[in-house]
Design a protein that fits this description.
This protein is an all-alpha fold and about 375 residues long. The chain folds into two domains: about 1-175, MFS general substrate transporter like domains (Growth Hormone, Chain: A, Up-down Bundle); about 190-380, Growth Hormone, Chain: A (Up-down Bundle). The chain is built from 17 helices and no strands.
């Protein structure tokens, strides 16, 4: 059954990644104004953050299975509505609800995985989950582009919708409910959020998630510009991004993934952030395609160390009564980081070299803050083994 949950993670992220090559042209066919296209692309991430947070509250109240089934069914239904769009406001509304309901899926799936694992094996489980995300990052854009070009954009939405709705039926029928997940707490979402921020290791995880995805948003925004500036074929933008994904997947799946349960998660997390920062600085000064591939392998190595570590910190520093909200907030920071990275650098109008240095600076400042905390609290932290 855990294999099926990994499949759900792939489906959820393929839904997101398959939009990358098709959403801008699709929005342009409805209304060609740049402002509208930008709003449509950003609408999903905005409402996805809201969905992540409310999903976390609902998971802790009603159980991850209920949220997962509802998220799959609602997202699948919304995807069907894309085929009926004729007016700009219709597309805007569908994008909002697509992001909102899609925000239910990932926190619920990761909560199920965390609840089914043991504390000393969370690292390996999260590494396998990371492999699922990496696989979706590679397959999603290719799937969206190929199906849209050979058939039509509508078929992209229809195929993913059918997969999600059938997965909802399968999840409802076969995934066992964990009664311990449920709680009769009458606290509002805001009342449940504040204690999570007061837990130092969770706050550190959120900072790590934001800085990671700030770097990811920067990479997605600036890498095509750098490829163009070096007069390299634009097809290599996608190949370079796939290189980082393949590197991460290999580390997630090979026996080396045992390191995630051997070393403290905060140490592998900070090591991953350091490697990503170095990769970004090197990438900003790259003048050849070969060196850019080296930088992306380095970036993928850092991502592979960071992603399972921050997920494991969430799993190990929460209970089944708080884990849903913790994961929901965690993935809200993921979305916020992507939006902040691409939007801020776009507004600043910086060169790709300065942009990569700024993103690396965010990572290094986060590492410095974490080091200060860990040095001040080393005695208390040494008593617990993540």
């Amino acid at each position: 059954m855990r294999s099926f949950i990994f499949f759900i993670i792939v489906v959820a992220f393929i839904d997101t990644f398959s939009q990358l090559p098709i959403m801008s042209p699709f929005a342009q066919s409805i209304d060609p104004s740049p402002a509208f296209i930008g709003m449509i692309v950003g609408m999903y991430s905005f409402s996805n953050m809201i969905g992540n947070i409310f999903a976390g509250y609902w998971i802790d109240k009603s159980g991850a299975k209920n949220v997962l089934v509802s998220g799959l069914a609602l997202t699948g239904t919304i995807l069907l509505l894309y085929t009926l769009v004729e007016l700009p406001y219709q597309l805007a509304a569908i994008r909002f609800f697509h992001g909102l309901f899609g925000g239910f899926l990932v926190p619920a799936a990761f909560t199920v995985i965390a609840n089914s694992g043991t504390s000393n094996k969370q690292g390996k489980s999260m590494a396998l989950s990371g492999a699922a995300v990496g696989g979706a990052a590679i397959l999603g854009p290719a799937f969206g582009a190929v199906v849209a070009s050979k058939y039509s954009v509508d078929w992209v939405f229809l195929i993913i919708a059918a997969t999600m709705i059938s997965s909802a039926v399968f999840t409802f029928t076969f995934l066992p409910s964990n009664q311990k997940e449920k709680t009769k707490s009458k606290k509002s979402p805001s009342e449940k959020l504040l204690p999570l921020f007061k837990e130092p290791m969770l706050a550190i995880s959120y900072a790590g998630a934001f800085s990671l995805m700030f770097a990811q948003g920067t990479l997605a925004y600036l890498l095509p510009s750098q490829v163009e500036n070096l007069e390299i074929s634009s097809i290599f933008s996608g190949i370079l991004l796939s290189t980082f994904g393949i590197t991460a997947i290999l580390i997630f799946l090979l026996p080396i993934n045992k390191i995630f349960d051997k070393y403290k998660h905060q140490n592998t997390m900070m090591t991953g952030m350091l490697i990503i920062g170095i990769a970004l600085i090197l990438l900003g000064s790259a003048s050849s395609l070969v060196f850019m591939f080296f930088c992306m392998v380095l970036y993928g190595t850092g991502f592979a160390l960071l992603f399972p570590s921050i997920n494991s910190l969430i799993a190990n520093h929460t209970t089944e009564k708080t884990r849903g909200m913790a994961f929901g907030l965690f993935y809200a920071f993921f979305s916020l980081g992507v939006v902040a990275g691409s939007t801020l650098l776009g507004l600043m109008g910086v060169t790709f070299r300065i942009g990569f240095i700024l993103a690396a600076g965010v990572l290094f400042l986060t590492i410095c803050g974490m080091n200060v905390y860990f040095n001040k609290n080393s005695s208390s932290l040494s008593k617990s083994q993540e």
